[in-house]
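note to self: dont lose this again. the chain is below, predicted strucutre after it. 270 aa total, dont forget to put it in the shared folder this time
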Amino acid sequence: MTQIITVTNQKGGVGKTTTASALVCGLHQRGAKVLGIDLDPQGNLGFTLGLDIGSGNTVYDVFKGTCSIEEAISPTEYGDILSSDIMLSAAEVEFTAPRREFMLSDLLTAVRERYDFIIIDTPPALNILTVNAYVCSTGLIVPMEAEVLSLVGVTQLQETIETVRDAFNPNLKVIGILINKFNGRLTLSKDILEMAQVVAEQLDSRVFEAKIHRGVGVAMAPAHGQSVLTYQPESRPAQDFQEIVDAVAGQQFPRPKQTFRQKYISKFFN
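---
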């Protein structure tokens, strides 16, 4: 069965695209068939994974019916990508037909069985695009920074999740809350972690045991059209993200074995 996982938080700048790109790349490295879908009009997921944003068909064209979903999917060395661009920002007012919450779910019927995982990146808003992602998803991953406003964004998701469960997708679950830019030496990070665990319980979920630590490679990787997993694979953030991929991939898609050099660098320089 295809797992459809949406990366979501209505607050911007919390690492949604970084997380989505790491999942796409990490799962592909393990031999899984992966499709990444960008529902953010900024188009950052495709850009992060090396696509030439602004050329070719996008998810907006598929929603409009001007091309098929097969025609809009672009193969990359990290997996297949259905990209977006700024035209998608008109979705809230442009797509008003009945069952508009099911646009993405209906379109995925044509390709769903080709993939082991479909990873969806969402905009920093609780709008029709986000609802479309929730309706077709089997699970949500909620990234947040270790700071108060990011935590507020997570708590505000709860009502939307419950509404989608009641009206459209009763099987929707929150796989986990992922804490980004974590520094265990700071009191604030420790306090936010405790509060995030309370919120996770309210969502019938958990906080991922792995926390994503800060690292310059996370910020630099998109400029090179890469995930941090390939740009700086031995870095602490890359290893953190691999633990998140472990949790998602399960035993069916184990992590590739490290070379001696990778083990040495990981042990002595992280």
